[in-house]
Amino acid sequence: MKIEDKILLNEIRKRNSKVFEALFRDYYPGLVRFAGKFVFDKTISEDIVQNFFAYLWESGRHLNVQTSIRSYFYQSIRNRCLNHLRDLKVKDKHNLLFLEASLSCDDQLFLQDDEIVDCIQQAIESLPKEMLDIFKLKYLKGLDIKEIANIKRISPNTIKTQLLRARKKLKRKLSESTSINFFL
Fold it and tell me: Could you state one GO cellular component term attached to this entry (predicted)?
């Protein structure tokens, strides 16, 4: 570790606000861009980086860095992005289970409500073609991200992004309908 990094690390441990502000100012834009390569969403990227700096400020006294400060920052952001994507996958599984349960339930009232079924079908069919194809492969055929990426010949991160955007569009479209809003 360079002497400059040792000095910076020592100042972080002392909670030197001027050093912390300088690090934030210097690293924030690059870390947000770096996070964006994983999560493909600027707002989420900004949240991840801001949460990292909040953690750094709160836990800086106990920081144990063996590499350079720069390497530590980027590795931390990478790990936080991967954790975010892992958590998204868990949410997806729960949402999928809920959707499957809702569609296969024996509740005659739900199954007979053509308005709900039509609304869901229209919302799904309104997705852009490529997004619709990916959505159907994931949720109707039950393929995992890697399988879809192989079929479509695009990166798994692109698949994740498309699925995230599809869910947002569907939620927005379906929330406009008061009868569907209850299920969301």
Answer: DNA-directed RNA polymerase complex
